[in-house]
Amino acid sequence: MPFTVLCIDYSIDWTPILTKLKLSDGSTIRVEQAEWKDISLVSSTQKGIVVHLKAAENPWPFTRQKEDRTLTQIDLVLMRNFPTDLHGKDYRSIVMGFMIARIPAVNSFHSVFMCMNRILLQAEMTSATERANDLLKESAAQAPQLRAVSIHYFPNTSPTENHLKRPDESISFPAVIKVGNTHAGYGKMRVFDRCDEDDLRSIIALTNEYCTVEPLVEYEYEYRIQKIGEHVRCFRRNNTKRGKGDHGDWKNNWGNLAFENMDTEPHHRVWIEECAKIFGGLDICALDVFHCRDGEVAIELNDTACGLMFEHQDEDIGHMRDLIVDQYLLGASAIGPTLTNIERGSSSGGCGQLRMLMSGTPEAETDELTADVPTRAVLWRFPQARRASIISQTVCRVRGSGCMANSTVTMDEMMARMDQITVGVDMAYTLLSGALAGFAMLEGGIVTRDSTKNIMFHSLADTLVGAVVYYIVGYGVGYGVGDEPNGFIGTVNLFGFWKANDTDHIKWLFSFAFAAVATTIVSGATAERIKTLGYMIYVVVANVLLYPIIAHWMWSTTGWISPFNRLSEKGPIASLGAIDFAGDGAVHLVGAVPSFVGALLLGYRGQYTRDKERYPPRFYKDANHKWQINEFAGNNDITATVGAMLLWVGWYGFNCGSTQAIVSQTHIVGRIAVNTTLSAAAGGIAGSIVGMFVDKTRQFNLSDGINGMLVGLVAITGGCSVVEPYGAIVIGVVGAIICKFVSVGMLKARIDDPVDAVAVHGGGGAWGLLAIGFFATKEYVAEVYNRPAAVDDWGVFYGGSGRQLGVQLLSIVVITGWCALIALIVFGAIKLVDDFRERPLFTFRDESSFEIMAFGAEKKDNARAAFVDPSILMSSRPRGNDIPLTTMSLTQHSHSPDTTPQPTITLHSHNMPQTRSTGITGSPILRSGEGAASGESDSDTDSSV
């Protein structure tokens, strides 16, 4: 999730300045820009803030802010305009709204609110100059004295004859009279004598503002000390005009005058640092000083709205940009006022230390501190995508004798400890999620017994080979974003030469779990047809060109169809970008499309074997030249069921873990878990019922229930964070229906998919992506993806325009096209090589190929005729019009005189009358030979297994 910065500025376009930044966690900065007059808000002390921004009227710089929009998340605010305008309107109510919601800012909203009172600001500046003089005096530094200009304040709203009578004795002429909060040189007038003052008095009487009087200082030149974070520089005005009274351009703005650089002396830094400590700290400020014959006079202190000088404007903007990044990394502060028992350290502005001095009896001291210091909070995002946390900056209540007595604790230390705890919890959560995502025992229970070693070794190869390849190349291809963003492919962090920060290794591990799952889907679909060497070739390609490429498109901050790229300069290809929260497209469709291509090109099991008795094919023609299906027994129904249930548990790692945080995303994680559960349950129920009707039986089938549950999990993966629970139920039900019909269609097309990978992951993944365009809610999309209110990119069932549905369909098309192209190249090359070889290198084709199913794993049993347990034969026998009652006899014989006699199981089939019964069937019972496969036997038959 991008880090959102609201810039209040009407002169500088901050979007290209900030959006190109790459933060330490890889996330980007999203910029929203507006003027004070365009902002309205509703804030809460507990639930944050909702800010509505009107469309910009000014064509520049708000070229990207052409529509009204609503923000529900603001991580930082940069104020470059003072919250008053030329016509006297102030926006202190807006400032208070941000303060109530405790939104961090540069400078803090508290300091901005206090600086709006120019009289109070002038008084604080006077105190700061006195402290600076004391510091310089103690250090024995040779520095001129700095004094603040004297101010006379008159709070009366209607000045009368007596209004200025008593101060007359202390007011000297010429003088400057200011009415209220002067703005940009307006609202003040120079008077040279009593007559001028009398003329002005009648005008002041018509206002409802206070007024101030200060002497018009005679000076030799004027200069400004500017501070942005730790950077301090000095400028001198060099076109000062001399006029009446020889006082120069006393009224003009700094931005309208020429200037020249001047050396920054140590005492300049001391002056500005002391002034920057007022009101809890100013990260950006500027002090205007007159150089006079008798010393230096501080005239005015400006806060974050101070103007930038043209020659150094780009450099100063860079300093502000770096300051924003520092605020993001260290925690954007909203430090409150200087209060009792709280001392601000010497660090700059919001990044300084806040020391809580404790002494004496702990109980009494903490009670006193708690009474003096109100509860304040700091809102910032830790360096981890899609995570926000509110850390309370409250005085710790210390209970117990002697605890922390006479000790000093810095707020930086407290924040660092809380940061460590929060990041630690989130890392552990992500690690756990990544581990859960690897549970995939299902395939081992579904394939035939003799190919179990082969399929298990392929799953092992996914991890062994995939981990190395994904670390060296894949991670950079998927998530490497360089200085020149590429929407198609990552271009940095390649070949293992990437420097990881605190969270990169966790992100790599979690994303690798997704890559491994996307890869292993193909192993089940191509079981018993591809050798380990050929499969390893596919693993390498999948971890470089399949999952990483699609993940970059869908999830990278620069991906051409990624929702996280919506606010970049170019943006995604359409509207919001394709929503795929946890991998309907990037994982499941990426695995399903190559599964289909591989199963199609490699043929069905037993297609190329000559010994049809020992290695019966999956599909064959009967005596009437009609295609029939050989039902192959699975290895173990119990293993398959347990694997499916473990996979369900692991799915919480997929979906919930995709938040990559749990401390601050509890409500989203909870919604994801509920939706995942309901979709899986609804899919399992629907799959069992639909399977019974499609197969025209009155029995529930275990495989249909498992597939329905799995497709429910797959279908909800992409939209688990943006749909309602009842929407998840509908998605699961529809997914199960699609899965069953895709499975039947694959059989009719004679495409052999032993684990129904295409039906489950392909049908479920495509439907899951499409369903988001129907069921995504406005509220949840805005929460998860920070969608502006003016962009109606949510589900059409909730009032969406249909644009999101269109972009979801586009994502299905492009993912399918890319994966099909790569799979055609890989499996086409494998097939082509083996077509011209007498002994196949990559695929299982002839009898000799089946002798070794994996490296060192010799094939000892019949590939089709797995061990038959008599109890299974009796309990799971099929029911129908003619039920074959099977008995068994055991004989021993030898194929040759040199071999040990081998036991042979002979099955004797006897037709029995139909028995009306309804039950649950397991995997189909092994049937060898064409008659058994087609179900056409009308007489007793014997078949050796």
TrEMBL record:
User: One biological-process term from Gene Ontology?
Assistant: ammonium homeostasis
* Domain Synapsin ATP-binding positions: 170-326
Query: What highest taxon heads this organism's lineage?
Result: Eukaryota
Q: How does it sit in the membrane?
A: Multi-pass membrane protein
Localization, per the record, is: Membrane
Q: Which stretches does UniProt call biased (Polar residues)?
A: 910-921
A single Gene Ontology MF term assigned here is:
ammonium channel activity
**GO CC term (a single one):** plasma membrane
Q: Which UniProt keywords apply?
A: Ammonia transport, Membrane, Transmembrane, Transmembrane helix, Transport
Q: The Synapsin pre-ATP-grasp domain covers which part of the protein? A: 4-105
Principal location: membrane
Q: Where is this region: Disordered?
A: 910-945
Q: Residue ranges of the Ammonium transporter AmtB-like domain?
A: 436-833
Q: Which chain regions cross the lipid bilayer? A: 427-448, 455-473, 508-526, 533-555, 585-604, 672-694, 726-746, 758-776, 809-830
In terms of Pfam families, this protein maps to: Ammonium_transp, Synapsin, Synapsin_C
So what family is this one in? Belongs to the ammonia transporter channel (TC 1.A.11.2) family.
Recorded protein name is Ammonium transporter
